[in-house]
Each structure stands twice: as C-alpha cells, then as structure tokens.
Amino acid sequence: MLLSQTLCLCLALALSYAAPTIHDVMMSDHDHDHHEDQVHHNANPDRCDGIEFDAIAPDEKGHTFFFKGDHLWNGFNGPAQVSSAFFRELDDYHHLGHVDAAFRMHNSEENGKHDHIYFFLDDKVFSYYNHSLEEGYPKDIQLDFPGVPSHLDAAVECPKGECNSDSVLFFKGEEVYNYDIATQLVKERQWAHLPNCTSAFRWLEQYYCFHGHNFTRFHPVSGEVNGVYPKDSRHYFMRCPNFGHGGEAKVPKCSEVTLDAITSDDSGKTYAFTGHNYMRLDTHRDGKHTFPIARTWKEVTNGVDAVFSYSDKIYIIKGDQVYIYKSAAPSTLIEGYPKSLNEELGIEGPVNAAFVCKDHHIVHIIQGQMMKDIDLSATPRVVAREASLPISGIEAGMCGPDGVKLYVGSEYYHYESPGVLALSRMLQEPKNVTPDMMGCVE
Ligand SMILES: *[C@@H]1O[C@H](CO)[C@@H](O)[C@H](O)[C@H]1NC(C)=O
Ligand SMILES: *[C@@H]1O[C@H](CO)[C@@H](O)[C@H](O)[C@H]1NC(C)=O
Ligand SMILES: *[C@@H]1O[C@H](CO)[C@@H](O)[C@H](O)[C@H]1NC(C)=O
Fold it and tell me: What is the pTM of this model?
C-alpha cells in the first residue's frame, strides 16, 4: 500500500490535475503580484530552482501552503506570494523573516482546536483559524506545547490510527518529539537514518520529511523509510518545467465535466471516473486528486462504463465484462474475474450506470432509459423489476445518504430514492455539478 501510494502521488501530479484545488488554479495563471516586491525586498523565490522549504502545512480547506522566507506558495501550482497576504499578522513579526514550522491541528473538536493552523517562529507559536490569528497569540511555544523546544525545524500532525494517539511530530536537528495532544506528554526519539527535516508534511495519509530540495517518506511511528529516497520534490509536489512528466493538464471547467461512473464504498471512499482517470472526492482535507484508474485497479486499462460498491467489494463494468475487487487497499481482483455480465448479473452490456444503496442488496442498472433491478443476494441473478425513466443520456449514478444522483454531462438529477426514481414520469430540472462536488472550476 505504501509503495502504490507513492506511485500514485507521482502519477497524480504528472498526469492529471496536479493543482488539486480551485484556488491553486486561479492563482496559477494570472497574478504575478509584482506590486508586492515594492514592499518586500526579497524577490519572489522560484520553487523550481530547487529550494529548501521552511514549513509546509494544509489549511482547513485542503489548500497546501509551502513557506520560504516571507513568501509562500498556495498549492502545488503557481507563483510565490507574500505570506502576510494570507496570514496577515505574520507581517507584524516580519523581522523574523520566516516561519520555522507549521502544521494543521486535526481531530480535536473537543478542545476547540479543530482545523487550526499553528505556526512556529523562534520561541513563539501562532494559532490561526479561518486565516485569522486567534486571540492570545502569539504565545510562548511551551504554554501550548509543554516539553516541545523552541527554534523548531518542522512539525506535522499525526492522527490516531496513523500514530498511536492524536499526536504532533516536531523535528529539531536529529531529535523528533512525539507530542500527545490529549495527555501533553512528549516522547523524544532519534531517527538517525532520517535526514534533518526542514519541513514535514502529511499528505493523503502519508508522511514526508523535506530536506534541501528533496524529500523522504517515513513511517510516523517507527520512522522507518521504505523505498528509494530521497526523491526530488520538484517531480512530485510542484509543477516545474523539465521535471516529472511535464504535462500541463488542466482542471476542467464544471460545465465541461463528464463522468463515466461514480461510487462510494462502505468506508466512505468516493470515486468519480472519467476516461482513464479517477478522482477521490472524499479527501477534501487534502484537496481533490486524480489518479490513473489502472494504478489502483490494475486490470482495468481502458476506462469504465459503470461502477458500484457492494459488501466490501467494488464492481467495475466495462463492455460486457465485470471486474470485482476487494475494496480494502490494495485493491485485489477476485479470482476468476473478469467475468461476463451475463454470467454475473444475467444481463447483456453495455451498461451506462449502476448503483447500490447502502445496506441494500439491489443493484440498479441503467441501460439507456431503462432501470433494471437485480437482487445480489439471490441466485441466479435475474432482473426482478424494470422501470422506464424520464431521463435520457445517463452516464453515471450513485446512491448516497441524500438519495440518488444521476449524471448527464455536467448536470445531475436528484431523487429521494430508487423507488421514487422508478415511479417518476416527469423530467425534473437538472442541477449543475459544482466545484465542491468535483474539484472543477466555475
Ligand atoms: C472566515 O472568514 C471570512 C472572511 O474573513 C468570513 O466571511 C467567514 O464568515 C469566516 N468563516 C468562519 C467559519 O468564521
Ligand atoms: C542535523 O542536526 C544536528 C543537530 O543540529 C547537526 O549536528 C547535524 O550536523 C545535522 N545533520 C545534517 C546532515 O545536517
Ligand atoms: C537530493 O537527492 C539526491 C539523490 O536523489 C542527492 O544526490 C542529492 O545530494 C540530494 N540533495 C540534497 C540537497 O539533499
């Protein structure tokens, strides 16, 4: 799983929209804020020159900020901007010239610190919420984080499940301080094999130590490094000419979105499929990201027609074939598959869309304007009910907690349930796909 995620990371950045948020994209093309240089004497640094970052941290919306001196980059794409344009009060301490470390607090709703960003400068800590400095800050680091030293090099959040408890890892020289958020206990470690990190970043459940223009992925509990590191950050965490595969993939406009399929599994992972790529839609805290389908579902090399999730498995339909994978990572194809649609579900292809509602056993198969219901708990599988729908051209469909959504191009139709859909005779007004839903731009 670790390895495949590294590959994904690389390919995600190389092949598709590396700039995962709308904000990134809007910033990338237009504004080179030259006027800023009149106030700040540092010329805008270029991260493609191979620089060492002071700190890296995401905000509550999944925008990732890379800090260097008094500048930052917002996202994986775009030019440097003055940090105080985003975090205003940092300018009052401008003489400090940089931040030492930063991280986003996670999972601490009970103490009111959910999704706050902390910055560390010398012996002070700044807490930001919604890009505003909170009252009482800056304060001495040890008032908030007893046992954690001043003049840090790096910091990164580590939620329970990935660390033993909700923690923050602080780095200073060769020392690593594992700070338990609830108990405020600090465990000091030396990970001598790990380079001294000047910034650290958690991204899509993986941990990265940045040093020079390189990074090394490590295990947050053991510090273990698996795989070939260091790697050059410019291939992975930013877009630079002559690095990575250099593709200038664009984030689509919402009005140009077309889906082949969409599904959400029992663990809440939500995937949208288009062409040879898929996008995770449930990772908003880290931005939305696109990966090649075949990176996760190896045998599916030519796109999909329909995808649905049922009982810890994901069913991928292409032509007259069905591939069934275990949902848990790494996705493995169940032995004996792909099989023909006829053998598996008792129907002929092609299929336009398919969905199962949570805890139900019926797969609703859309073919043209027909919806065919097949009971997955019965053998042999046969079409138990058919309904003619008022909508034509359905390309993808999903059943979620708020009902059924059927996608036609960049529009979708929303029904309370498959039952309501089956009985509907009138064509309702479609709604437009939004940036929040698909990571597209208006
Ligand atoms: C965040 O800040 C913006 C602009 O300053 C404001 O409009 C918005 O209401 C704030 N949101 C929250 C949750 O405080
Ligand atoms: C790492 O930090 C320690 C303590 O500051 C320092 O002695 C050591 O030289 C550093 N190592 C490297 C490779 O920079
Ligand atoms: C970066 O990594 C490469 C090996 O991949 C190494 O040769 C180089 O010295 C490293 N540079 C820095 C600044 O860490």
Answer: 0.65
